[in-house]
Amino acid sequence: MICWINPFTGLAGDMLLGALLDAGAPLEQVRASIAATGLTGWELDAVWVRSHGLTATSARVRVTDRATERRAAELIELAAAAHPEPVAALGVAALTAIARAEGRLPDADPAEVHLHELGGHDALVDIIGVAAALHALDVTELVCAPLPLGTGRVRSAHGVLPCPAPATMELLAGAAVTGTDLPGETVTPTGAALLRAAGARFGPLPPMTPVATGYGVGTRILTDRPNVVAVTLGRPLSSSEAGPKVEDVLTLEANLDDVTGETLAHTMARALAEGALDEAAGLAALADAVAGAGFGTRPLVVDAFASGRPNHERNPARGGR
C-alpha cells in the first residue's frame, strides 16, 4: 500500500497518528503495539473533531508521567520492545534520529543524549503509534508533499531558538520543504524523524488507486483554516493502468564536412553499439550524409536514453528528442 502525506499546515507525530487512524488503522492494534513496550501510565484515544467545516481525528494521549527530560537510551529501550518487530525497528530508528539531531556532536553517543523536548511518554506513544498504524495498514511506500515551514521563534529547554528549530532542520536534511505564511513551528522533530526513519520520499501524489483518505488534526487552533495533515492510501497501478513509460532522450548532433563514407559507417556502428536509438533513422542519416559528402556541411544526429540504458532494452513508448 502507498501512503501519500499532504502536510496541509505542517506535520507532527500526533497529527500523523490521527490521520492514519482516520484512514482506517485499528486503534486497538495500535494500542497493543504501544503496550508491548512496557510503558505504563498512558491512554490513547481517537476523537473526531470539526474544524472549519472539516471533520478530522485527534489522537489524544494522556499520561501520568511528568518527566520533561530523559536519556535517549531509555526511550530507545522501550521502543525496541514494541511488537511486531517492524514497528519496533521504525520506532528505534526515529528516536535514534532525534537523538543524533539533538546532540549534533560528532563524537556524542546518541543513546546518552538528554531529550529535553521529548522526555514525556507521549512522544513514545506518538512514535510507536504511527509505526504500528503504518504496519497495520500494510504501507510499503511513504510519499510526502513538500513540508511547509513556518518562521519566527520557538521556545525550548535551551531558551528561544529560531524557527524552524535547529534539530528539526537537521532531521529535514535532504527533504523537500517550502515556506508558508503560518508563523511558528509547523513541523516538529517527531514528525520529521518519522519521515526520515520510514524512508519517505518527497513528491506529488504518485500514480495509484486511492482506497482511503484520513485527516489528523493538531492541537494548535488556526483562525482561517483547519490545522490538519491528510493521508491518502492507495494501491499501486499495474503496468497497463500506469500507461506507457516516457523517458528522456538526449540528442548528440554534429556537422559533417569532408568526411569519408568509411568513417561515417564506423561512427554509426560505434554509436549503435553504445546504445544509440533508431537504427533505421541512424542509417538514413548516414546515407544522407554520405550522399552529401563534398557538397557542403550536413548534420549527423544520434539519439540515446538520458539514463544510459542500453539500446536493446529500449522502450518503444519513449519520449521525443
Automatic annotation (TrEMBL):
Pfam families: Ni_insertion. This is Nickel pincer cofactor biosynthesis protein LarC. The lineage of its organism: Bacteria, Bacillati, Actinomycetota, Actinomycetes, Kitasatosporales. Keywords: Nickel. It comes from the Bacteria. It comes from Kitasatospora kifunensis. InterPro entries: Ni_insertion.
